[in-house]
Amino acid sequence: MHRLLFQIALFATLTLTVSSTLQAAENEDNFVPRRQQGVPGPPLSPQDAIAKMTVPSGFSVEVVASEPDIVNPVAMTFDEKGRIWVTESFEYPRSEPGPGRDRIKVLEDTDQDGAIDKVTVFAEGLNIPSGIAVGYGGVWVANAPDILFLQDTDGDLKADKSEVVVTGFGRTDTHELPNSLTWGPDGYLYGLNGVFNYSHVKHRGQDFVFTCAMFRIDPRTREFELFCEGTSNPWGIAFDPNGQAFVSACVIDHLWHLTESGYYHRQGGPYPPHTWKIESIVKHKHQMAAYCGIEYFDSDAYPQEYRDCLYMGNIHGGCVNVDVLQREGSTYFAKPRPDFLTANDVWHMPVDQKTGPDGCLYVLDWYDRYHCYQDARARPGDVDRLKGRLYRVRFENTPRAQPYDLNQETDDQLISRLASSNRFYRDQAQRVLSERASQNAIPQLESLVLDESASQKTRLHALWSLIGARQLSDKFSLKLLSHTNPQLRSWAVRYQGTVPSDNPAIAQAIGKLAHDESPDVRLQVATLAPQVDYLPTVPTLLEVLHHSPEDKLIPHIVWQNLHPQLENETPQYLALMQQTPYVQSEAALSLLPRAAGRILGTPGLSVEHVATLVKLLASQPGQEEQLAACLERIAAQTQSRELTGERLAQLKSELAGSLSEVMAAGNQHPGYYHAANLALAWNDANAMKIAPQVFATTGQPTERRVAALDAMLSAGHPQAITLVTKYFSATDNSQDEIGRVIQTLGKSDSDVIAALLLERLDTLSSENRPKAVEVLLQRPAWTLLLLSQIEQGKVPKDILSVNQLQRLVSTSSKEVAQQIASIYGTIKTGRDPSRTFIVAQMRRLISSGEGDPHRGIEVYNKLCGQCHKLHGKGQEVGPEITVNGRGNFEQLLSNVFDPSLVIGKDYQAVTVLTTEGRVLSGLLVEDSDARVVLKMQGGKLETVARDDVDAMKTSDTSLMPEGIEKQLSPAEILDLFAYLTLTKPPENPNAELISGAGTIDPAAIVLPSTAHNLLVDAKISTNVPLFDAGKRGEMHDPIFNPKTGKFVRDSQWHEIGVAGGAELGVLSEEQAVTWTATWNKPVSINFLTLSGTYPNQPQPDTAWAVEVKIDGTWQTLERGQGGWYDSGRFVWGWPGAVSVPIEALRVKVFSPDEKTPVRSVHFRGEEGFSWFAGNLLPETSVVRQ
């Protein structure tokens, strides 16, 4: 198997003001950034860059603009004159708000030769302007925390008026800022925000708290609203010819169809209560996972096969990916096409794509070696801030665009452009018509909308022109609502959400469309229903749902809009559900389990309503599975104590008879076991027999056995503890099932459970032992029993991770904290800075050994798979790491061995203390007025009723524990990393190592002249005589100064102790020979080397230790016997690693045992390497190429 290589290379820091040394610096680059497979090499000139690009036959790439005309371009747009507006950012990745150095430029091609020849700076003083749109008399700019509206009031193409339209966007993650400002077909300005950019917009009396979302702004009224929420870091909005919205996103799936009021799968963080998330529209993946920009291409400048596609920038892939859409009911499904453009240059970063006035695709290129924000954050001074390109992909000799100005055209001219075969002109003309809102244009636009001879694209653009101008009359709306074209009907419905009508005829017409044959129309009716007063929300939603039994999207949208109505409209909902056709509607009945959970989770709603739902399902033939699902949901809410006291008593009164009937039907009824588990809540006689029998029967499915145990423990069943004891005496239970049973045992408060787990701790599998420990830590009394066993030496101390100890000290009882202090001493909160040492040790271990990736899968499943998914294996508690957290080997090392160094808010552990004394820790999934839901290690969801929550605390550390190296043998670590460092599963022949992984040759290590050796500045001392005269071969003093190329002392060999190899006698470690470097004040180091002329130095038989002093205490970096590692060289740390402040460095040499004497100690350096302590930047090369 491969060893791991860290190829970190030197390059010059680029600044805004110093450019004369740029080319020389670029030629020295050898750094391997994240998500890249090798050294980027020097940047290419714009012409050389396009020469390397690959595009389909007949196409070519042209340079439209490049540095210095544009640098660090982030976003772009075209205006009604064909001018290109580009935002530039020198400030990225700055987090602080306030004025900056960033700009907006206007690019013009005045001679129509295809290249920019005029550049005007429109605005300055911005701070990462991440989105731009032109319209409604000004320029809209996303400049977090604000959305700005900039105007040029005197015609000099300079912004002289600024308005803050909306404020409150976060800057917690500056690669997920509000972005992609795009005009929608309805005249709204749409934008996106990322999952880790926490935002709180207060606007006109409303609070909007959100992360990943699509928002929109009405340019006329300045109203702000969230269109939908979810996804990850979306960047790029495109609308298809029907006006449906699509976004590209990073890390998780890359393509999403977004619909108003929908809530989509999140990369991380909790969902609102009762959310039924919507998934992406793709099953495939492209090269990597950093998508930026998306364009729906519809222009006759390209052959047909390249039209009606989605073009998406792929930053890590250095290409433009292509997907094609297929309809699937009211939504879509996308399939991949071959890449449209491949740069073959890792500097290429396509951040935006737009169709231009000539019908060609334009690609904006940030052009930088640093693709990942981690690199930019770690080294903001080294981000290349002097380059940027804009390319055009041209087919054959596509004509250049001729000068035009849509603002100067008449309404008739603009309307004629709505039939253009280049969507660019249709979009621009539509926007200008909407802004102009001319009364004179209305008749002609209405006529065009109804013109059957016109193309549907033209007709829709005519309609959108009216919608954007808010000029759709009731009379014309009624025509559209009854039109044979479903897209016209659909948009007439959608318009009512913007400008509701009080015309009863409108209400009547839309009401009829709830059962329209078109899913697009029904989807819009479901979205509109809760927005207008004239539609009865619940009946309308049920009607839509009833007519959409197979649709993948509509049921989600119906539920999102229905469940809030249940707080006030449950009686109406239940009455309707008992009537034809809904009582027999598969689609409508399928929501009853969710409705039951929503009703039970809403204080003040009667449980009679839930009983009505259960009886309704029980009365319907063929609904046994839905009944089972409903009973399972109710049982879960009783077991979590969301339902107690009078409400539980009422539930028993209402449901006891129905549950008895289900149980009497026998175990062939799908609801049999769930009915028993629910009835256990009131000690039903039959249930008291069924549940123990299920749990005690080995042949029962794991899911069923665990559910029965959960129900028994929650209800305090008298046989539960006995049955658990018997369970652990059996030998035929699967390890997976044992683990799930263990995780359920926290529901009990019996000390018998604690004793049982402690007794069997040694015999549990490595996968299940941590689960047992977590359960023991859930109750202070159990924790004390565990700590007692640790104190007595019966259980190893390292069975508790630092994270667990920190959690216990901060959240558990005073007695527990005192016991921990007596065993472990003082437990510091927060991240342990000494993890840097561990990372360095693990780097050395992994770089010097070989592992088996197939065995690594077993280690992964045992340790990592409880919380992470990789190549489809594991649980989704923490981030999915197939495309996240493994950008290069340094990032992977840090994430595994120093997990709290960098942690997103959504991955911080949340600890809940319950009123009965339980302590639960996991990732927050839901936090509502009714309950708190945590996702625990192993993927188990733990629900705590809000009334049972005594306190909640968010940790500053990761849920992932520190110290996993203590749980694995060195061989297991090597195997694990052999697996983790592969880009694909090991059985895949295309699997490669992630960047920075490979082999390392110690002989290739060399200290560059830029490295400052802090030992030069230190006071050097030894505790024995120093001999440095004479000559024995090519040997030198230890300290070499790379800057001068000379040794600090004028010596050719260096021994301490006695000369000539004589013995110093047997020396214990306390009597060790020491070589010490001390500084007047702490210095920071992340790289340390020791070397000798011979591989066996300091001496073949001696023991040695390398130590550093931190806060007055000596800490061991490493110890060994014989020669330094790495063929006579000792290497600790690596350039770019987290630095450690130290006060002194000490090397000790002593006898390995009571017999072996210490001889004269050879501390010798070698030219170009030597003894070194310093803080090296990540781009510093220590590998001779």
UniProtKB/TrEMBL annotation:
Spans traversing the lipid bilayer: none
Signal peptide positions are 1-24
Protein name stated in the entry: Dehydrogenase
Which keywords annotate this record?
Heme, Iron, Metal-binding, Signal
Q: Name one GO molecular function term.
A: heme binding
Q: Which PANTHER family match?
A: LARGE, MULTIFUNCTIONAL SECRETED PROTEIN, LARGE, MULTIFUNCTIONAL SECRETED PROTEIN-RELATED
* Xref: Pfam families: DUF7133
Residue ranges annotated for the Cytochrome c domain, each copy included: 851-984
- Check the record and name the PROSITE patterns matching this protein: CYTC (PS51007)
